[in-house]
Amino acid sequence: MGFLCYKPVALAPNKTLIGITGSIGSGKSTALSIFGELGAVTISSDAIARTFTEPNSPVKGDLVNLFGTKILANDGTILRSKIAEIAFSDETKLKALNDLLHPLVRQAFLSFFESQNPNSIVAWEVPLLFETDAHTICDFTVTIYLPKEQNWERVKARGGMELADFERRTAAQMDIEKKKFLSDFVVTNDTDREGLKEQIVIIYKEIQKRIQI
């Protein structure tokens, strides 16, 4: 675990925003849940993005125009796995998907953030935190780190993804070492949930101390 200097950003002077990122399979969602256990309000960009691939999605037509009807099941349901398969095999399609969804996800997040009570600490899981410049509105940033080999072992154990797909998705993100360098805090998640929680407790207490200064 490492600490870097605090770089304040005034998205909301009376609230604190923690951006959480990391590579695929590193434990971002688990880290988010731990921040929630410690008292933070939690929200995930992936969870928001999934709402835009629901059957009644306002951008369903845009997705079909971009990827074709092959992303639809027989009942018209959007197949997220098919979108991912196409997007991560075609940089142009991936960029178009990101250009479509990221502004919608950002706006949904901002609406959520604005609705929170004064003095709230909000933990926001964002896989592409630095790639989309979302870090610029965060008060603190945290990277959950795991060496690539261990990343793959965890993803493989979860099932549902081949090594080639994992490597394509990893290549589509900023190098994890650069994310670590840019972050205020780095957590190495190479043991178990308890080991992860111990590090996050230290970070959370440090953040609470800094925002009280």
Give the N-to-C terminal Cα separation: 23 Å
What is the total domain count? 2
Which CATH architecture of the largest domain is right? 3-Layer(aba) Sandwich
Rounded mean pLDDT is 91
CATH topology of the largest domain: Rossmann fold
Instruction: Determine the CATH superfamily of the largest domain.
Output: P-loop containing nucleotide triphosphate hydrolases
Brief descriptors of the model:
single chain; 213 residues; alpha/beta; 2 domains; 9 helices; 13% strand; disordered N terminus; kinase; nucleotide-binding; P-loop_NTPase; ATP binding; transferase
Explain what you see.
It holds the Pfam family CoaE. Pathway: Cofactor biosynthesis; coenzyme A biosynthesis; CoA from (R)-pantothenate: step 5/5. Catalyzes the phosphorylation of the 3'-hydroxyl group of dephosphocoenzyme A to form coenzyme A. By secondary structure, the protein is an alpha/beta fold. The chain folds into 2 domains: 127 residues, Rossmann fold (3-Layer(aba) Sandwich); 64 residues, no CATH class. It has a 6-stranded mixed beta sheet with strand order 1-6-5-2-4-3, sandwiched between helices. α1 packs across α9 and α3 packs antiparallel against α5. The protein is globular and about 55 Å long. 31% of the residues are buried. The N terminus is likely disordered.
